[in-house]
Design a protein that fits this description.
The chain has about 250 residues and is an alpha/beta fold. It is about 30% helix and about 20% strand.
């Protein structure tokens, strides 16, 4: 087991707490992942991304390769914003291109586009669902919740590094570039078609979901090859965007 030594001075607890702020995360090049299941997910799939582990109890065996710091429950509560802290935190490197203006060289076959999805819980749940349904990446507008904010990361349940992410104001140009590369764009729209059997049978697709209150912009809707509406009973006015996204991702599998 590796511990921090005199050669590696302990960081003040306020340094970890400050990582809740985007500016501090970018300056430090790291963010926090909390909870044993989420940390295990990172350790199993992106082991080199973890730089340090903090724990209030016995360190799980899968973490014993990392620099380790034991902290008290009170110290953990001073770091995390979670109502019920889960006892273990990993310090994780920020992916280099997460705020880049360009797409990856190989974007993959299925891409989720989120336009102004502002609730961190919704954004994180959609990223997690995208991983579950085999999506390669997520494009997010700058008005979306930050993918590395504590609440978003918590909602991804450790899947935050399992696909590529681009959070950028250049999202419309990215969608246009993908369209030029023969990706079909499916947009959710309350005025869209209710029959998913008409969805484009494309091996390359973009699924676009919009803001919780206002939906997708005209810029995205005008690009769409198909506008999809999920029929619901009159007693419910609408679906949560995370629930809508899960249904749509299932339909496009």
């Amino acid at each position: 087991m590796v511990y921090q030594s005199e050669d590696t001075p302990l960081k003040p607890l306020k340094w970890y707490k400050a990582l809740a702020d985007k500016k501090e995360r970018l300056e430090s090049g790291v963010f926090l992942v909390e909870g044993e299941r989420a940390v295990r997910q990172i350790a199993d799939n992106n082991p080199d991304a973890i730089t340090e582990v903090l724990s209030t109890g016995e360190l799980p065996s899968f973490c014993r390769r990392y620099v380790y710091r034991h902290i008290t429950a009170q110290q953990l509560r001073s770091i995390t914003s979670a109502t019920t802290p889960q006892g273990i935190i990993a310090v994780v490197r920020i992916p280099e291109d997460i705020y880049a203006e360009n797409l990856p060289d190989n974007p993959g076959s299925k891409i989720l586009l989120l336009e102004d999805v502002q609730d961190p819980g919704n954004a994180g749940s959609l990223i997690r669902t995208a991983v579950a349904f085999g999506f390669s990446g997520v494009i997010m507008s700058e008005k979306c919740a930050d993918p590395l904010s504590p609440k978003t990361v918590q909602s991804t349940a450790g899947t935050i590094l399992s696909l590529w992410i681009r959070r950028t104001n250049n999202y419309l140009d990215m969608a246009s570039s993908l369209k030029a590369a023969e990706y079909s764009l499916i947009a959710t729209d309350l005025k869209g078609a209710e029959n998913p059997s008409f969805l484009p049978k494309s091996k390359r697709l973009i699924l676009a979901l919009g803001n919780e209150a206002s939906g997708l912009s005209a810029g995205i809707l005008d690009m769409a090859d198909f506008r999809l509406k999920i029929p619901i009973k009159d007693k419910a006015e609408s679906l949560n965007v995370a629930a809508c996204g899960a249904i749509c991702m299932y339909l496009t599998r």
